[in-house]
Amino acid sequence: MAINLASKYSDQIAEVFTRASFIKGKTADTFDLTGVKTLKVYTPITVEEVDYDRDGGLARYGDVTEMQDVVQELTMTQDKAFTLTIDKGNDLDQNLVKNAADMLRLQLNEKSTPAADKYAFRRFVTMAGTIAESAAKPTKADIISKIADASQALDDALVPDDDRYLYLTSEMYKLVCTSDEFAGVDVLARQSIAKGVCGEVFGMNVVRVPKSYLPKDVYFLVTHKDAVLMPYKIADAKVHEDPVGVSGALIEGRHYYDAYVLGAKCGGVYALVAAGRTSAAPTISSGKLTAGSGATIRYTLDGSDPRYSSSARDYVSGKTLLADDGCSIRAYAVEGGKYPSPVATE
């Protein structure tokens, strides 16, 4: 793309509209990936209570078993960078409108922040504990009911009431505001309650996001702050004045980040997607797994959730599996271009 050198330039530049991150500050900050590329998160497995046996001798409290755990591996994958130069001659001929620090800010606001948010939304939907399908696109007559289903799913998963976020597009937000339920019940706060939040529905903080941010065919996403992570290991941006080989300014930036759903708290993430966008769950029969044509099956034998467990493996067609003692075979399938299926258990 050419550098436009005109006879006279305005001392102002026309910036593209941008928005701050919609996710920053709305994810857990419990886990620290500083100094490592992969972090292993341990989730201890508790046991069911039994009746106390007054005549049981040393087994009054039940059989003694060592506490087991499930491991989820969080591996950083997004290592992005950019570089630009502002030639001193071009800058002079453009009336010095391209201040290097301001141009760096433009790059971050127009490219880096939106790219990170969009990636995180894709990851949160793909790794959601519940991916529900809607037979038809929500309307103002049923949008509140569908959001209520999401709230109920979080309630049933014992997710705390506070720090729940409902991400939806302006189109879906309009349906909420014009819905029949909204006309009779004040389910949506009339005024903004926090930066980046535009009300509440069923106690969930509503965050309105651009249509391009949520993945295609996703109607809305609900997350609890403690169920999702978006760690930044490197958020580095700098301006070099007259470095070797450049007469002018050199702008560089690097962003090393990722996004995850914690398996132990996956019940705190719910996505509503269009019909036909999720894969069909595999079937398990006599230790053998089957799924749709072209689907990849991931399974575990220790009873852990294969969507998050580090013990998950790809299934080889025809192989007979045997669960670990006292455990179940658990598996899910992923078809090309679709979201993961629910987990099947035997």
Structural description of this entry:
The structure is a single chain. This protein is an alpha+beta fold. 17% of the residues lie in helices and 29% in strands. It has five helices and 19 strands. The chain has helices at residues 88-93, 100-126, 143-156, 170-177, 180-184, and strands at 38-45, 68-75, 78-87, 130-134, 164-169, 200-201, 204-209, 218-224, 228-229, 232-241, 248-257, 260-261, 269-274, 283-285, 288-290, 296-300, 313-314, 330-334, 344-345. The strands form six sheets. Strands 4-13-8-5-7-6 form a six-stranded mixed β-sheet, with helices on both faces. The longest helix is centred in the N-terminal third of the chain and has 27 residues, at 100-126.
Estimate percent helicity.
10-25%
Number of helices, counting only DSSP H or I runs of 4 residues or more: 5
Secondary-structure element order, N to C: EEEHHEHEHHEEEEEEEEEEEEEE
Estimate what percentage of residues fall within beta strands. Answer: 25-35%
Q: Note the main sheet.
A: 6 strands, mixed
The SS-based structural class is: alpha+beta
Strand order of the largest sheet: 4-13-8-5-7-6
Beginning-to-end CA distance, first to last residue: 59 Å
Give the overall average pLDDT. Answer: 85
Task: Write down the overall geometry.
Answer: globular
Low-confidence stretches: 7-13, 189-194
Question: Could you tell me the number of beta strands?
Answer: 19
What is the rounded Rg? 25 Å
Question: Could you provide a short overview of the structure?
Answer:
The protein is 17% helix and 29% strand.
Question: What structural keywords apply?
Answer:
346 residues; alpha+beta; four-stranded antiparallel beta sheet; 5 helices
